[in-house]
UniProtKB/TrEMBL annotation:
<dbReference type="InterPro" id="IPR029044">
    <property type="entry name" value="Nucleotide-diphossugar_trans"/>
</dbReference>
<keyword id="KW-0328">Glycosyltransferase</keyword>
<dbReference type="GO" id="GO:0016757">
    <property type="term" value="F:glycosyltransferase activity"/>
</dbReference>
<keyword id="KW-1003">Cell membrane</keyword>
<protein>
    <submittedName>
        <fullName>Glycosyltransferase family 2 protein</fullName>
    </submittedName>
</protein>
<dbReference type="InterPro" id="IPR050256">
    <property type="entry name" value="Glycosyltransferase_2"/>
</dbReference>
<feature type="domain" description="Glycosyltransferase 2-like">
    <location>
        <begin position="8"/>
        <end position="168"/>
    </location>
</feature>
<dbReference type="Pfam" id="PF00535">
    <property type="entry name" value="Glycos_transf_2"/>
</dbReference>
<feature type="transmembrane region" description="Helical">
    <location>
        <begin position="267"/>
        <end position="293"/>
    </location>
</feature>
<dbReference type="InterPro" id="IPR001173">
    <property type="entry name" value="Glyco_trans_2-like"/>
</dbReference>
<keyword id="KW-0472">Membrane</keyword>
<keyword id="KW-0808">Transferase</keyword>
<keyword id="KW-0812">Transmembrane</keyword>
<comment type="similarity">
    <text>Belongs to the glycosyltransferase 2 family. GtrB subfamily.</text>
</comment>
<keyword id="KW-1133">Transmembrane helix</keyword>
<feature type="transmembrane region" description="Helical">
    <location>
        <begin position="239"/>
        <end position="261"/>
    </location>
</feature>
<dbReference type="GO" id="GO:0005886">
    <property type="term" value="C:plasma membrane"/>
</dbReference>
Length: 323
């Protein structure tokens, strides 16, 4: 029944034995109400608990369910990518296994998709049951990233979203968007197409602990920033320019004061100004390197120059030529 699938639901899971069965049931109940063909693709990201056994059992009993098992833990973003690679549906939904994103919201996303939107992302109005630290750092991170990039990456949205087949194809196409340090939600924003939001309230985790350790969170944040912003590479140039400029002004002032005998400023003062000036130049040279490295990075990433959503009139010409 792989052909004609309307919806693919991609569910990454890492050590989720305490809730995966319940998660499957909720998703199944919601998807059954659509009365349209769907598949649930679980991606087991190298779990070391019973997740594999439970999912294999579910697969055996329900033909809607598919399982991709990783040989080790490759990380959430890679798990999502593997699910999207293997999804057959006309629309693909990515959702966490821990039921923090209520499966019922998928139905609202589908409505929006049927209205003609290609990307429908879930926007978190509120996040329940999460630590102050997590809420604070997440809020800060989304705003920092937004301020550092030209791409319109919406704030307070995770990977819980629906994407149309054509957006999924762009993400999956080889030699284009196959970045290794992936920040999937950013790539989807970057891809463009008609995007809209569905607001929802994020529930607490159904069971177990977060699988996003501080280390994994930092890695995700760094991937988000380095994939979509040059700003860190530009810091030395700006800082150096600023430092050199104020040192030069200071030096000029000191020299004038000395030459006209208004005030006597020691050689030390002058040396500090000269030193600051050259330190600034050093920074600026680093910044110039940064600009080049940024461009090399851009070239190696292999993102396509553009993505076409529609072409009109081209086939018509071909027909005319044949006649
Ligand atoms: N996850 C994964 N691989 C990882 C870490 C997490 O596949 O290395 C999955 C996890 O099982 C869950 C989703 O990614 O389905 C989100 O993780 P989690 O709920 O732990 O993150 P949080 O909601 O706390 O940010
Ligand atoms: Mg979670």
């Amino acid at each position: 029944m792989s052909e004609g699938i309307k919806y693919s639901i991609v569910i990454p899971a890492f050590n989720e034995e305490s809730l995966i069965e319940e998660s499957y049931k909720r998703l199944k109940n919601v998807m059954d109400t659509t009365n349209e063909p769907y598949e649930l693709i679980f991606v087991n990201d190298g779990s070391r608990d019973g997740t594999d056994e439970i999912l294999t059992g579910i697969c055996d009993n329900d033909s809607h369910v598919k399982l991709i098992n990783f040989s080790r833990n490759f990380g959430h973003q890679i798990a999502i990518t593997a699910g999207m690679d293997n999804a057959k549906g006309d629309a693909v939904v990515v959702i966490d296994a821990d039921l923090q994103d209520p499966p019922e919201v998928i139905l609202k996303m589908i409505e929006k998709w049927k209205e003609g939107y290609d990307v429908v992302y879930g926007k978190r109005l509120e996040r329940k049951g999460e630590s102050f630290f997590k809420l604070f750092t997440a809020r800060l991170f989304y705003r920092l990233l937004k301020s550092m990039t030209n791409i319109d990456i919406p704030v307070d949205t995770g990977d819980f979203r629906l994407i149309d087949r054509k957006v999924c194809d762009v993400m999956n196409s080889f030699n284009s968007v196959r970045e290794k340090n992936r920040y999937v939600r950013g790539l989807i924003s970057w891809a463009g197409f008609k995007q809209t939001a569905v607001p929802y309230i994020r529930d607490p985790r159904l069971a177990g602990e977060t699988k996003y350790t501080l280390k994994k969170m930092l890695k995700l944040a760094m991937d988000g920033i380095t994939s979509f912003s040059y700003v860190p590479l530009k810091i030395p140039l700006r800082l150096g320019g600023f430092l050199s400029a104020i040192s030069a002004i200071y030096l000029l002032a000191v020299l004038i004061l000395r030459i006209f005998g208004i005030s006597h400023i020691s050689m030390w003062g002058i040396m500090i100004a000269v030193n600051g000036f050259f330190a600034g130049i050093n920074f600026m040279i680093l910044g110039v390197f940064g600009e080049y490295i940024g461009r090399i990075y851009d070239e190696t990433r292999n993102r396509p120059l553009y993505i076409i959503s529609k072409k009109v009139g081209f086939d018509k010409n071909n027909e005319d030529n044949k006649r």
